[in-house]
Amino acid sequence: MSLSTEDNELLCRIEGQAPMGIALRENFWIPALLSDSLVAGGKPLPSRLFGENFVAFRATDGRVGFFDELCPHRGASLLLARNEDNSLRCIYHGWKYDVSGKTVEVPTEPRNPEAFCRTVPLKHYPVHEAAGIVFVWLGRSAPQPFPDFEFTTLPPDHTYATKQLLRCNWLQNVEAGMDSAHVSVLHQAWAGGGPNLIPSFIGDDQAPIYEFENFPGGFRYAALRNVRAGGKYVRINNFVMPWFCLIAPSKFPDGDRLVLLTTPIDDYHTFYWNLKYNPFKPLSPSIHNPADDPDNFPPPTMGGRENAWGQDRAAMARGHFSGFGHLNTEDFAVCESQGKMADRSKEYLNSGDLAVVRVRQLLLDLVGRQRSGAVDSAHPHGEIRYNQIRALADILTDKNEWRSLVA
Predict the structure, then answer these.
(1) Could you tell me which residues come within 8 angstroms of residue 183 by beta carbon, excluding any fewer than 6 positions away?
(2) What is the CA radius of gyration of the chain?
(3) Taking a C-beta distance cutoff of 8 angstroms, is the pair 262, 174 a contact?
(4) What pLDDT was estimated at residue 78?
(5) Longest dimension (CA), the chain
(6) Architecture of domain 29-136
(7) Which of 189, 168, 163 lies closest to 324 in space, CA to CA?
(8) pLDDT of 51-72, one tens digit each?
(9) 224-239 burial, b for 16+ CB within 10 Å, e for fewer?
(10) What's the confidence (pLDDT) of residue 197?
């Protein structure tokens, strides 16, 4: 379904009092930073989410604090603060805030400073660490239970997270994650390139047939492709509101899994998260090789429209399909090429876009329910068995087998 201009704006805008921004903040834990980026007792780090600026730090005892960036006293940035005694101390006047958000010292207040501390309106936010990611709850209501996907409870050597800044709206990244049709076209240069990439036979059929099963808060779907050697290659991906894209492993049954997440920074900037995990065994050490900088992981720097995002036309002339030297850079380039905020009213869709259409429908339903105020929560958290959701892949003789496929 191509969207009206009004619905496109409704889905994309997340800053301030935009309805979608409110729906996301009030219903979901937000992936904010890589856990390893926060050093105990180290410098505070910035985090920009939904058009607002925050500060995160790891206290000396290992806990994570997450505050509004500006000191509530005179508005100095707490990025400059001292990280001491499990607290941030503003360097302007020495006001001190512990990791739980309590004001513990106001050295410039001469009369009953303890009582004055209790009145300071510091805004702090609950956090939860899982799979190498710091998640934050930005909603005004009490946090929902954290979603217990299987990757959130695995040992550290079974997961590996990286992220990348994209200069486009958040929805473009979510849609790319649920678009199985593009894999055999855009990423064809990587087919057969190793156990963590794409099977060589993915290009046998570039027009997959989709079949769907809905579940509370999302859906799973089979992308079915004919294989020249016989049978059907099936990739079973899952979408869980609002941005969890669980992608089928290339090696089955025990290959590494992939989860794609999205963080809305503001209306025109996004963090793309790439989380690899394996429920059966530690990840291969080679999985770390492309990520010299986990906060900016696809080498080399891709640039932008001015240099066609680093596309190498000479490589294309030599036979490389896309001209990009990293699989993820292909995704980033096409997402940014759609513009800062894609105009979906001008699209002309086909059957390969059915999963993307379902994502849009779910998000429109979410924001509609939130705006109506008919329920306390617009997302059915308690009805979802997060830890049973898993992406799968296999070659089948009967396409209907996918519905009972397990690993």
Answers:
(1) 198, 202, 235
(2) 23
(3) yes
(4) 98
(5) 83
(6) 3-layer Sandwich (2.102)
(7) 189
(8) 999 999 999 999 999 999 999 9
(9) bbbeeeebbbbbbbbb
(10) 61
Helix intervals (H) in 123-247: 170-177, 183-186
Average pLDDT over residues 79-95: 98
**Count of beta carbons in the 10 Å neighbourhood of residue 202:** 25
Tokens representing residue 302 in the block: 């891709």
- CA 254 to CA 252: how far, in whole Å? 5
CA 51 to chain centre: 16
pLDDT tens for residues 272-296? 999 999 999 998 766 544 556 788 7
**Direct distance between the N- and C-terminal alpha carbons of the chain, in angstroms, rounded to an integer:** 33
**What is the chain's percent helix, strand, coil content, to nearest 5?**
30, 25, 45
HSE-up of 268 (CA within 13 Å, CB side)?
3
CATH topology of domain 151-404: Naphthalene 1,2-dioxygenase Alpha Subunit; Chain A, domain 1 (3.90.380)
Closest CA to 142 of 398, 376, 392: 376
Domain boundaries, the chain: 29-136, 151-404
Q: Do 29-136 and 151-404 share a fold?
A: no
Tell me which residue has tokens 């891709």. 302
Measured CA to CA, the distance from residue 164 to residue 272 in angstroms comes to 5
DSSP state of 200: G
342, 166 in Cβ contact below 8 A? no
Kind and range of the H or E element at 108? none
| Cβ contact 224:233 at 8 Å | yes
* 276 neighbors 270 (Cβ within 8 angstroms): no
pTM beyond 0.90:
yes
